[in-house]
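Repro:
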Amino acid sequence: MMDKILNVDGPLMGLLNKTGQLIVLSVLWLLCCVPVITVPAATTALYYAVCKSIRFDTGSATKEFFRSFRANVLRGIGAGLPPAALASLLLLNLRILGTGEGNNALGWGALLGLSLLAAAGVYICPILSRFTMNLRDVWKLSFVMAVRFLPLTVLLLLGAAAG
């Protein structure tokens, strides 16, 4: 019984191996996120490497991570910078409107815009890792998925806000 559990190909060693790969991938993700503009590319690479090497047991985790990171670094920057600039403007708008009197339509509009941007942003990295399309189509698909899977989107946003 103990020989099966402690065997190199046994379930315990498989679990420890996958846990070690997840730790290595998390450290690589953290290192690649140091320049903030590469966060979408690093997250895309993390998602791709976890799906391919840990979930489906094909390829090396670090090789898959760096292959996906190199392939998506420019697309990730392009997908992340314009929405970040728009979110900054909307937050600035909320900050300026917060100093005024009462709630107005511009404040609610900015809050709605931030909510839609966050809802679509949840799906950007998985879409970038799986599909080859231009950034406009990536954002369109992301908005469609945010609406189509609205309960899951709300749960993902709540989880991101709590974490």
